[in-house]
Amino acid sequence: MTDTTTTTLSVVTDEPTRLELFRSMLRIRRIEEEIARRYGEQRMRCPVHLSVGQEAAAVGTCSALRPTDQIVSTHRCHGHYLAKGGDLRAMIAELYGKATGCCGGRGGSMHLFDPAAGVLASVPIVGSNVPIGVGAALTAKQRRRPDVAVAFFGDGAFEEGVVHEAANFAGCHRLPMIFVLENNLYSVYTPVDQRQPARAGEQPMAGFAQTHGLAAEHADGNDVVAVHEAMGRAVVRARRGDGPSLLVVDTYRFLEHCGASDDDHLGYRPVGELATWRDRCPVAGTRAALRDAGLLDVATELAMESAIVREIDEAFAAADAAPYPAAHTAMEAVHA
Amino acid sequence: MPDAARQSAPRILDAADAIREGTAQAMRADERVFVMGEGATDPKGVFGTTTGLVQEFGTDRVMEMPVAENGWTGVAIGAALCGQRPILVHQRVEFSLLAMEQLVNNAAKIHYVSGGRHRAPLVVRLVVGRGWGQGPAHSQSLEALFAHIPGLKVAMPSSAADAKGLLLGAVQDDGPVILIEHRWVHYARGHVDPEPIAMPLDGPRQLRSGDDCTVVSTSYMTLEALQAADALAAAGCNVDLFDLRVLRPLKLDAIVASVRRTGRLVTVDTGHATYGIGAEIVARVTAEAFSSLRAAPQRIGLPEHPTPSARTLAEAYYPRSPKIVATIGDVVGMPKAAIDEIVHRLAAERDAVPLDIPHPSFKGPF
After folding, report:
1. Which residues of B have a catalytic role annotated?
2. Whether the Cβ atoms of residue B35 and residue B86 lie closer than 8 Å to each other
3. Domains and CATH numbers, chain A
């Protein structure tokens, strides 16, 4: 029998960690806001899928990992990449299509990876990254490494057969694997209730875990501490050989599916839904909680902000100054 | 038979045993190599190609797979990115169609997209079924689908020696290699080096020499082409016969040089003729050696319908050596009577054996 009890493990988030979770979310927010601000210049000539509003999911999970742990991400990979420690300059340069990008300009925004940080791959075909993450978990088990692997996916990928195939495999082999399901309620413009049946229970997606022999965790995806602690429990189980977990986090995308703009005028979101979720902004909520607890004063936050802005400015300036890949290199590295 | 006993016996193996031996040797030499497949550990061992491996290497390295081809192909890619060297095997080509998403989107591209930093060393073994009424979804030779994709390498052995050597070459390769085994080539017997010698995935092998025509064949059709070539040679028509072996990367230098000399080209492959391997060869050779051509190049391949199961329907479906003789004879301008004589003799020989099982003459040793 699979032990799906999740309450026996206690993971506590100390004060320095809570501050760092906030700083990491703020940094991702500012980076994506800067991408959005500059996107209209049409010098980042690739699709971008911004995760504004979903920062707590990325930061809460990746902050529970080590650099040697591997994550695989999706088309919406900026937040995961940055939260896991991916190199900012290589990311911005990739969006600009420059030779100094993490893919040398060959991938664009949807293919971010950074081996040094344990960002194994990002794959834009929905669900396609998930078995690759399971392969990393299989390797950890086969090579007896103390690493875990994490696959991010969304409510859309939840409908893909390959995600179930991958989870079945991980469950069958008791791999050190964590499936992080970010339910942001939409696949592009189509709400989840038009794509999936109504399911009984408070956590309707948790049946996935039972089916595939995974332990189940759930967290408010806009509460970074809750995500961090739920992820921490899954990581402890994976590292000590207790097998894979599913972590479902409920969250919400503030901007359009692809691109840098608001899209509430399209009318696919119920009236007032976006405002409700903006009131639950993970960055603002964490800021307020830290202020209330006396852990974050204005001077500290200003210092954080100015360091972040400086880093962003430097990354964009470096990307701007970097060379494009030379046309004649297009035939290189087709085969290893 | 254990390997030690094999090595004291004459080194004539069939291709299935050669694949099994090569796999075991690769696994002994490198602990990163492991096998994944539906039926990899079962009593039949994928037509004998994985038999006994689980007893030697255990279930961690000879892994039985859930019936979830795209999923475990993705798992293999992830493992390969993390330094492992998986060998995947599908009992029929058709099951790999469920894994095309992972193979095409991820395996083929991840080295390129990562600017050469990622490596996905995996071998995907696919078996083409034929005979005994395999029918429309257990007999397709779909190498052209894979060969269309930059980033994949695609090889098709036609002999026991190549089956082992190309497998070992594929295992050593740092990228994804699709190894397509024709079920009837599994029966082909021949000398196989007992040592684990990897063959580079570097192009065709010339099997016969002659000035009258250049013939390029793949996989099992190489055995049919050999029979045709030898029958023609007895009648004074000599061909350059190339077994293509490696479909991607496609190296045609030797074939182009041959056509410049012979002025004639016939291709014989196991897939459908339209948009097939032969079409690509004819197009490239024609572009490079147009002025040398003395006759229009001809392709021999499967017709424009799926594989029927019933023997009476399948009879005309698969081209055999008489058809190859007739095509080559026509291209070189042999007298019709001379062509007909060979065609009738070969057809009579072949008709003595049911068409839905391999002809004994194709088991070798070659």
Report:
1. 69, 138
2. yes
3. 15-184+208-252+271-322 (3.40.50.970)
